[in-house]
């Protein structure tokens, strides 16, 4: 057992802090090396606030005070103590002055205790760079969203709109412009710009390229300022469309955002393919598609004989195990795309 050097009461040695009991330590020594002073900076327009050099999204004053206090108090706490947590008991603000009552949870190697401390500070209001940029129309990042063909289907636009609504809750967007060819996003936040580009690339298998246009040389930093442009292209396909996949004709049977389900009319098989295959060259949109209609005129054993409706030329098809049942008078399609031919016996497999 040991005695507190201030009040003389007897305690176990592990209950003492530098020879003082907890109560005497709080009253006569104090938990701070020096009294902390909170410095809070808030944008009066968007209510974002400055923390460690970065403007954060708006929050209530209690959240701002707690986060700032955790950062500042760790600098002022005595070296023998460790700050576990704190809670805000009360906030009193008069103009630019703030007085905060905090409940601190502290510990040493052997003692854990709580104390209530009053901390003061200043609240300053400063317009953040984002709001300055918005008012002047200036931006540092441009995202151009385009498509591989004009007039993309409505489902692509709807899915893209939903994703953008979710992403644009962030406060780094200066302006959004809509064009017939796509969408432009003007931003002043590099992190948010990269996050949007990564999300669209992942969700829609978009291809991204970047370019930088210098506008002004920053002599302090020794580098150019300007606009970094991300150009995104989203591959577009539609149901029933004839495509070439791995040098074989396929028909787009279904669409799943960044995937397509392809039907192979020759083998009768289906395959789910990522739209990223478009950028590797495995999945192609043929430059020209020709479809010729044939009418089944005769069936002789394992052979189907059909005649073209236009040229009256004869087409002989040898039956396979996967060949659908046909009868005289049925229509058969001969599809030609980029010098690749495919015969579609079951016309219902074409969705358009």
Give structural notes:
18% of the residues lie in helices and 45% in strands. With 352 residues, it is α+β, with helices and mostly antiparallel strands. It has three domains: 97 residues, no CATH class; 105 residues, no CATH class; 108 residues, no CATH class. Strands 5-4-3-8-7-6 form a six-stranded mixed beta sheet, with helices on one face. Strands 10-11-9-13-12 form a five-stranded mixed beta sheet. Strands 17-16-15-14-18 form a five-stranded antiparallel beta sheet. Helix 4 packs antiparallel against helix 5. The chain is elongated and about 115 Å long.
List its traits.
alpha+beta; 352 residues; 6-stranded mixed sheet; 3 domains
- What ranges have pLDDT less than 50 throughout 5 or more consecutive residues? none
Q: Main beta sheet, described?
A: 6 strands, mixed
In percent terms, what proportion of residues is strand?
over 45%
Termini separation: 91 Å
Helical coverage, percent range: 10-25%
Q: Which quaternary structure do these chains form?
A: single chain
Widest β-sheet, arrangement of strands: 5-4-3-8-7-6
Number of helices: 6
- Supply Rg: 35 Å
> Into how many domains do the coordinates divide?
3
Order of helices and strands: EEHEEEHEEEHEHEEHEEEEEEHEEEEEE
Overall SS class: alpha+beta
Q: Overall 3D geometry? A: elongated
Mean pLDDT: 86
Number of strands: 23
């Amino acid at each position: 057992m040991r005695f507190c050097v201030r009040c003389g009461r007897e305690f176990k040695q592990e209950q003492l802090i530098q020879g003082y009991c907890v109560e005497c330590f709080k009253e006569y020594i104090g938990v701070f090396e020096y009294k902390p002073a909170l410095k809070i900076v808030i944008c009066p327009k968007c209510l974002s606030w400055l923390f460690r050099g970065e403007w954060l999204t708006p929050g209530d004053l209690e959240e701002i005070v707690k986060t700032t206090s955790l950062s500042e108090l760790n600098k002022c706490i005595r070296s023998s103590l460790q700050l576990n947590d704190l809670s805000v008991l009360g906030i009193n603000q008069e103009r630019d002055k703030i007085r905060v009552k905090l409940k601190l949870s502290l510990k040493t190697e052997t003692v854990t205790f709580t104390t209530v401390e009053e901390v003061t500070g200043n609240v300053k209001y400063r317009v953040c760079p984002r709001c300055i940029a918005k008012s002047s129309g200036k931006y540092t990042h441009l995202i151009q969203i385009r498509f591989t063909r004009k007039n993309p289907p409505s489902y692509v636009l709807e899915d893209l709109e939903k994703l953008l609504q979710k992403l644009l809750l962030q406060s780094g967007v200066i302006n959004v412009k809509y064009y017939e060819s796509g969408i432009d996003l003007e931003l002043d936040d590099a992190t948010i710009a990269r996050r949007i580009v990564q999300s669209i690339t992942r969700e829609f298998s978009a291809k991204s390229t970047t370019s930088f246009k210098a506008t002004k040389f920053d002599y302090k930093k020794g580098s150019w300022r300007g606009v970094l442009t991300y150009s995104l292209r989203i591959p577009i396909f539609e149901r029933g469309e004839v495509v070439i996949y791995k040098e074989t004709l396929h028909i787009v049977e279904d669409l799943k955002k960044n995937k397509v389900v392809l039907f192979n009319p020759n083998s009768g098989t289906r395959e789910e393919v990522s739209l990223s295959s478009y950028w590797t060259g495995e999945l192609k949109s043929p430059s020209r598609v020709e479809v010729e209609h044939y009418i089944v005129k005769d069936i002789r054993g394992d052979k189907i004989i059909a005649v073209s409706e236009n040229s009256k030329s004869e087409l002989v098809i040898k039956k396979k195990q996967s060949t659908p049942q046909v009868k005289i008078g049925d229509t058969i399609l001969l599809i030609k795309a980029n010098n690749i031919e495919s015969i579609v016996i079951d016309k219902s497999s074409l969705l358009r």
